[in-house]
Automatic annotation (TrEMBL):
InterPro entries noted in UniProt: ABC_Gly_betaine_transp_sub-bd
Protein name: Glycine betaine ABC transporter substrate-binding protein
UniProt feature coiled coil, ranges: none
Source superkingdom: Bacteria
Length: 295
């Protein structure tokens, strides 16, 4: 933005503005009638980037299908990025136009974004550089969950982390995702809920398990996900991160249609299909048609 303003105020910039003004006053647009519509049609395709995960690839495919149906030209970046953070940085750097991003991961990557906000959407909007927009998030999360076995939930009457205080026994906290960024520690749980848990590292036999929301163990082992009213586990809802000029109002409205039906459970099923070998585009089209979002 600074360099653009500098060019306008330079002698050449002023001369260019004067020439454009004369052309407009004389009724000459420098192109055919309806040039603005032609310019829209000739806009460069929006480039969608993704990391290598199944979740990112299928969400990117959903975005592509929705934008294409809305009349926008779209193509997928030739190579995948190393992580959601790298993909988001590519949008900021102008390498790509659109990417699936995740709330807390995005916030941690931004300067001064380490503190969890009360309003994630507003905080992201203020933290992002000019021209980069975080569109509203879907219901789906790619982040972490805290879960217990059905037997543990029934034994102690657990529905949320706030119920852990009713357990008379000292419970352990661990699980395969307990070392992930943003994973709740025993100290964080104690601070939020006044409950003392014994750290158990990455053990899958811990009483209270920290898992990724796409972990097949959740369904396979019939685990109960505990509620987290104090938000000890940071939210990781997926949302479209865009370069503002690349996606018009029609495209943004199209992307917003997926927010309610794309739940964590639906995302996990889509990712599982891609992991088994289904092409992300095919999985996306099948799901969108089933939701009535694509013909």
């Amino acid at each position: 933005m600074i360099s653009r303003l500098h060019r306008i105020h330079s002698p050449l910039g002023i001369l260019a503005l004067a020439v454009c003004s004369l052309l407009l006053l004389s009724g000459c647009s420098g192109g055919p009638a309806g040039g603005s519509r032609a310019g829209h049609a000739e806009r460069e395709p929006a480039v969608i980037g993704t990391d290598g995960s199944a979740e990112s690839r299928v969400v990117a495919a959903i975005y592509r299908e929705l934008l294409t149906a809305a009349g926008q030209k779209v193509r997928t970046a030739d190579t995948a990025y190393a992580s959601p953070t790298h993909t988001a940085q590519a949008v900021v750097d102008g390498e790509i136009s659109v990417a699936p991003a995740y709330e807390s991961s995005m916030l941690r990557a931004l300067p001064g974004g380490q503190t969890m906000p009360g309003n994630m959407e507003a905080t992201l909007s203020m933290a992002l550089p000019p021209g980069i927009v975080a569109l509203p998030a879907a219901a789906a999360q790619r982040g972490l969950v805290v879960a217990v076995t059905e037997a543990t939930a029934d034994r102690y009457g657990l529905r949320g982390l706030d119920d852990l205080g009713a357990a008379k026994d000292r419970l352990t906290l661990g699980g395969p995702a307990s070392g992930d960024p943003g994973a709740p520690s025993a100290a964080a749980v104690k601070k939020a809920y006044g409950v003392t848990l014994t750290p158990a590292g990455t053990s899958r036999t811990a009483d209270v398990l920290v898992l990724r929301s796409s972990d097949p163990a959740l369904a396979r082992d019939g685990l109960d996900v505990l509620g987290d009213p104090e938000s000890v586990v940071p939210p990781e809802h997926v949302f479209p991160l865009i370069s503002a000029p690349a996606v018009d109002a029609t495209g943004r409205a199209a992307l917003a249609r997926v927010n309610a039906p794309l739940t964590t459970g639906q995302l996990a099923k889509l990712a599982a299909s891609v992991d088994k070998g289904e092409a992300p585009g095919k999985a996306a089209r099948t799901w969108l048609r089933a939701q009535g979002l694509l013909r």
